[in-house]
């Protein structure tokens, strides 16, 4: 590996490292998996990425394997940003290259984080309206395409990407955007790898027309290459949708042009605690009609467990909730319109129900609630609360059945499965407390994933409703795919990556023994976040 690292360092502007202590740093993300890469590359330009990919592809042609994994800041929860080959980190490709205030466009490199971008745009009165972890990079947002909390109102990252520059598995760099057929014919070199991909995708769309049509009826599912349904629309062909939720298995994004919006008014929050679940659902359905920026739900047991470690929010000190549910709605409308919506929420609550509206005087109450959530995730007595299968989609009319099923799994596996998530997007999370450092704990992870995925299926939901499968959810998800869907996704993968060098084992080709082999055997360092 040291010879390969030395060779690559001679040909790129950035760096390639094979020192074990550095590789160890990139061995984990926010999932329960761990894979130590053989080398870590920190490219500084798109040309660097081209050279790294071209080198790995040439090795593959000679039957020598150096799988490539693209990585942002390691915020992924599905194990898609780790690998045992060459990890390519975009942390140095982190420049905001141009902001067009009048046209409301911004051009960025893939390593720019959401927080950094919105801080810069805020100075111009603009923003990218994505309500997600501010540490996630733009490249990761596209590669994972998560349903952020504000996507119910603002549409999510898919609706804000105009075009992208992508490095293909051959090492060629291409621009992906909508092209009409005449423009496409004039643009493409008949002998190029890019041209071959367009032709193969056209063939795939014709050969698998019925499967693609069936796939379009399941919009709340990011398994496989779900956006094949959006490639051919009207008189245009656009391969860019396939990059969304592909998790670096089809190409590596090196430049992005985003459409941006005017900065909305500050979000005003409203929190309510309701002990009765039927009453809770009635309130949630009413609040959804008011088009909030977000509408989150929390099992009240989260607050109870945080209180055991001294993190009881002041708002709940005179209203101890022994059981029940908490809802938090956020409205980013103009001041008086947001106030009217919050008043409507208050008016539908039965007498005696605790609620609190955010003001300048009580903002600390809501901050304390966020602190209580961190305490719940991190102050554990017998293990860790890491993401095993976050962001599952459950239809609203089956939420009650889903929660009832969670209680049964709790009893069987002796786990606490307190739920939290977004009612406005129907995406939910549970974080079981499991000790991954021993064999029994790792076996419990596998048992939990099996029973949990079965429950999601029974409730007409999807494990990949809010984020793609990566390595963790790929096992149960692949079992639910029809043979025709597997063939469709395999054909797409082969068209883009014939030598299977881009993130192999992610989304497709995952086996149980590989997942078990990569389960962590020691506690993850650092703070666990939602």
Verbal overview:
The protein is of the alpha+beta class. The chain is 36% helix and 16% strand. It starts with a helix and ends in a 13-residue tail after the last helix. The longest helix is centred in the last third of the chain and has 20 residues. It is globular and about 70 Å long. A hairpin with a 5-residue loop joins strand 8 and strand 9. It has a domain of 167 residues: Uridine Diphospho-n-acetylenolpyruvylglucosamine Reductase, domain 3 (2-Layer Sandwich), CATH 3.30.465.10. The strands form 5 sheets. The chain has a 7-stranded antiparallel β-sheet with strand order 18-15-17-16-20-21-19, with helices on both faces.
The gist of it:
This protein has 530 residues and is α+β, with helices and mostly antiparallel strands. It is built from 18 helices and 21 strands. Helix 8 packs antiparallel against helix 17 and helix 11 packs across helix 13.
Approximate strand percentage: 15-25%
Query: Could you tell me the number of beta strands?
Result: 21
**In terms of structural class, how would the helical and strand content be classed?**
alpha+beta
Largest sheet: 7 strands, antiparallel
Question: What's the CATH first level of the domain at 96-262?
Answer: Alpha Beta
């Amino acid at each position: 590996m040291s010879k390969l690292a030395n060779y690559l360092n001679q040909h790129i502007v950035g760096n390639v490292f094979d020192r074990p202590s550095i590789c160890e740093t990139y061995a984990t993300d926010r999932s329960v998996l761990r894979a130590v890469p053989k080398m870590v590359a920190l490219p500084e330009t798109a040309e660097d990425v081209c050279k790294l990919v071209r080198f790995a592809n040439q090795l593959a042609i000679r039957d020598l394997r150096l799988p490539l994994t693209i990585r942002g800041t390691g915020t992924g929860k599905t194990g898609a940003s780790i690998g045992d080959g060459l990890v390519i980190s975009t942390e140095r490709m982190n420049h905001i290259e141009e902001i067009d205030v009048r046209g409301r466009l911004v051009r960025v490199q893939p390593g720019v984080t959401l927080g950094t971008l919105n801080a810069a745009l805020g100075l111009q009165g603009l923003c990218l309206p994505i309500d997600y972890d501010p540490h996630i990079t733009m490249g990761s947002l596209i590669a994972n395409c998560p349903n952020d909390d504000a996507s119910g109102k603002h549409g999510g990252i898919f609706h804000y990407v105009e075009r992208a520059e992508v490095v293909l598995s051959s090492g060629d760099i291409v621009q992906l955007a909508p092209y009409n057929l005449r423009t496409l014919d004039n643009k493409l070199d008949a002998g190029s790898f890019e041209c071959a991909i367009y032709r193969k995708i056209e063939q795939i769309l014709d050969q698998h027309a019925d499967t693609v049509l069936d796939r379009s009826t399941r919009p709340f599912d990011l398994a496989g290459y779900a956006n094949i349904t959006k490639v051919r629309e009207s008189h245009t062909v656009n391969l860019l949708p396939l990059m969304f939720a592909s998790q670096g298995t089809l190409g590596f994004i090196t430049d992005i042009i985003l459409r941006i919006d005017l900065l909305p008014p500050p979000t005003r929050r409203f929190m309510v605690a309701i002990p009765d679940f039927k009453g809770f659902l009635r309130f949630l359905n009413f609040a959804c009609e008011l088009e909030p920026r977000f509408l989150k739900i929390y099992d009240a047991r989260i607050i109870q467990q945080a209180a055991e470690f001294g993190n009881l929010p002041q708002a709940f000190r005179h209203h101890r909730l022994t059981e029940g549910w908490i809802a938090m709605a956020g409205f980013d409308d103009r001041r008086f319109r947001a106030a009217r919506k919050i008043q409507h929420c208050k008016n539908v609550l039965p007498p005696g129900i605790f609620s609190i509206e955010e003001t300048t005087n009580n903002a600390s109450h809501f901050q304390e609630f966020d602190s209580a959530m961190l305490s719940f995730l991190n102050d554990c007595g017998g293990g860790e609360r890491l993401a095993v299968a976050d962001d599952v989609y459950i239809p609203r009319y089956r939420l009650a059945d889903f929660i009832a099923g969670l209680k049964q799994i709790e009893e069987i596996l002796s786990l606490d499965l307190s739920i939290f998530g977004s009612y406005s997007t129907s995406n939910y999370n549970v974080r079981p407390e499991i000790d991954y450092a021993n064999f029994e704990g790792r076996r419990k992870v596998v048992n939990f994933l099996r029973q949990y995925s079965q429950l999601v299926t029974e409730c007409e939901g999807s494990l990949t409703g809010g984020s793609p499968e990566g390595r963790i959810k790929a096992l149960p998800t692949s079992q639910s795919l029809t043979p025709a869907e597997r063939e469709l996704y395999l054909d797409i993968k082969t068209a883009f990556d014939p030598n299977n060098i881009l993130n192999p084992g992610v989304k497709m080709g995952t086996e149980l023994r590989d997942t078990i082999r990569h389960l962590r055997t020691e506690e993850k360092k650092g703070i666990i976040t939602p």
